[in-house]
């Protein structure tokens, strides 16, 4: 039937609609209803194409990692009130999809069996009532052609903000101490803050424990070989390695520069994460909200 209606629309410049409908045996009311619907569909298609463009821009800006939830949240932050199912449909139709994280990584943990471990003060509760009260740390390796680059990090559990990090061609105690000094130097650790890690020798070293004691912090450790006891720190590394876009660098200098850019300009200030109470925010915005400051962007509903 649509073919008949399209024929009428194409020929109505030469013949009256009354005549065309009579010859083709269709009701004028049916034709007019189809034409009205066709116009609405045409408008809808143009609107969908414009929305696909906005979705694509957000997707590319997210390093092609955002899926439907965060694409939808970013649209709302930009004042675009659009149905989530519509976003999902358009992304599916145009082959736009987020990344799923790769699982598994070789652990760097080398426990010092002679050192007494600290108690587990976290017990897999990776939340905190306010920034600076509970942080988790870990070390990962970054592959470069000239050798490994090691990255030590400290993640605030209240905001999921990366508050301290350090990179070097080794993973001795200096590496984790330097990262902790960064967080402390920025004033992001409260007195009595719980510092949670695995039982690696870097964290049981005299140098690291001495620095914790002088800073008025409390040490916490998960069990040996149980990655779930430090899952929040592991999760950040999964995000980094999946979303940074490079699998192996030419040299350590370029890897350091890319990791710095990823953390400072993207992860802390642009990457959205859903807060159970406040909706989608970046880690930096979450810290602002905790401190009673209005975030840089409107909250996602």
UniProtKB/TrEMBL annotation:
It comes from the Bacteria. This is IS3 family transposase. It comes from Streptomyces scopuliridis.
């Amino acid at each position: 039937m649509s073919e008949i209606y399209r024929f009428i629309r194409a020929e109505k410049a030469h013949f009256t609609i009354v005549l065309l409908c009579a010859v083709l045996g269709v009701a004028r009311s049916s034709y007019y209803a189809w034409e009205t619907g066709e116009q609405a569909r045409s408008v809808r298609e143009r609107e969908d194409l414009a929305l696909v463009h906005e979705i694509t821009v957000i997707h590319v800006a997210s390093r092609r990692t955002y899926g439907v939830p965060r694409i939808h949240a970013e649209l709302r932050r930009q004042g675009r009130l659009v149905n989530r199912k519509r976003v999902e449909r358009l992304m599916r139709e145009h082959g736009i999809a987020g990344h799923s994280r790769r699982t598994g990584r070789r652990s760097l943990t080398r426990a010092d069996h002679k050192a007494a471990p600290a108690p587990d003060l976290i017990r897999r509760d990776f939340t905190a009532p306010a920034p600076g009260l509970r942080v988790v740390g870990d070390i990962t390796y970054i592959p470069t052609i000239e050798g490994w680059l090691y990255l030590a990090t400290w993640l605030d559990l209240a905001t999921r903000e990366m508050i301290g990090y350090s990179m070097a061609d080794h993973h001795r105690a200096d590496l984790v101490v330097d990262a902790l000094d960064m967080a402390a130097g920025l004033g992001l650790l409260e007195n009595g803050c719980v510092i949670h890690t695995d039982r690696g020798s870097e964290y049981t070293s005299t140098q690291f424990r001495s620095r914790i004691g002088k800073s008025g912090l409390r040490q916490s450790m998960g069990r040996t070989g149980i990655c779930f006891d430090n899952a929040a720190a592991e999760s950040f590394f999964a995000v980094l390695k999946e979303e940074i876009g490079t699998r192996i660098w030419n040299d350590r200098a370029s890897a350091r520069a890319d990791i710095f850019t990823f953390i400072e300009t993207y992860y802390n200030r642009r990457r959205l994460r859903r807060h159970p109470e406040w909706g989608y925010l970046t880690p930096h915005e979450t810290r602002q909200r905790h401190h009673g400051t209005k975030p840089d962007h409107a909250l996602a509903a």
